Amino acid sequence: MNTDRIDSTSLGTAKTDTLRQVLLDLIVEYAYVEGDFLLSSGAKSSYYINCKEVTLRAEGALALGRLLFQILPSDTIAVAGLTLGADPMVSAVSVVSAYEGKPIPALIIRKKPKGHGTKAYIEGPSLASGAKIVVLEDVVTTGGSALTAVERLQTAGYEVTQILSLVDREQGGKELYQSKGIDFQALFSIREIQEY
């Protein structure tokens, strides 16, 4: 990573282009690895992207939180995502939203319901029925993980307006979301990362 580009204290005021470049540098340096991998979808791949290597770093969380907050629809009531990949993302966007004076809560969707108490799938503040929620995902491949989050939110009575991702592997996720009538946008495509 080019550490001369910006110091971490400047990320709070950096322009969009700078934030994108910092995030791309972090992804390439820490998250992208080539080799032989089995993906959660069951497919084999010659590369793997572990975005938690970026989203759990202070600089990565701040950069992605600011970038994602900027592109949220204005009527967004909350951000949500399937645990574990989306956990740092929804937290980062929620914290940034508070600093921007437009606080948006974060919801975390469990893969299995809690085994005690309310046995809930969704953790976070209760929202009004019909609340518009944007689902966040670190890496989209076939789209299954984020769609699970969408379905759980819809079952709870919420409306999912969009899915935002850090990286799109361009392997069918976007098309799946379109077939369900859900907008999709990624900060980076796999082509951008591999070309860089």
CATH architecture: 3-Layer(aba) Sandwich
**What is the number of strand segments?**
8
What portion of residues belong to β-strands? 25-35%
**What is the count of distinct domains?**
1
Strand order of the largest sheet: 5-4-3-6-7-8
Tally of individual helices:
7
Characterize the largest beta sheet: strand count, sense, and whether it forms a barrel. Answer: 6 strands, mixed
CATH class: Alpha Beta
Distance between the termini: 12 Å
pLDDT below 50 for ≥5 consecutive residues: which ranges?
none
CATH topology name? Rossmann fold
Fraction in helix:
25-40%
The chain-level mean pLDDT equals 93
- Element-level helix/strand string: HEEHHEHEEEHEHEH
Radius of gyration: 16 Å
Secondary-structure content class: alpha/beta
**Apparent shape:** globular
Descriptive notes:
By secondary structure, the protein is of the alpha/beta class. The chain has a single domain, classed as Rossmann fold. Helices cover 37% and strands 26% of the residues. It contains seven helices and eight strands; from the N terminus they run αββααβαβββαβαβα. The chain starts with 15 loop residues before the first helix and ends with a helix. InterPro entries: OPRT (IPR023031), Or_phspho_trans_dom (IPR004467), PRTase-like (IPR029057), PRTase_dom (IPR000836). It catalyses: orotidine 5'-phosphate + diphosphate = orotate + 5-phospho-alpha-D-ribose 1-diphosphate. GO terms for molecular function: magnesium ion binding; orotate phosphoribosyltransferase activity. Its EC number is 2.4.2.10.
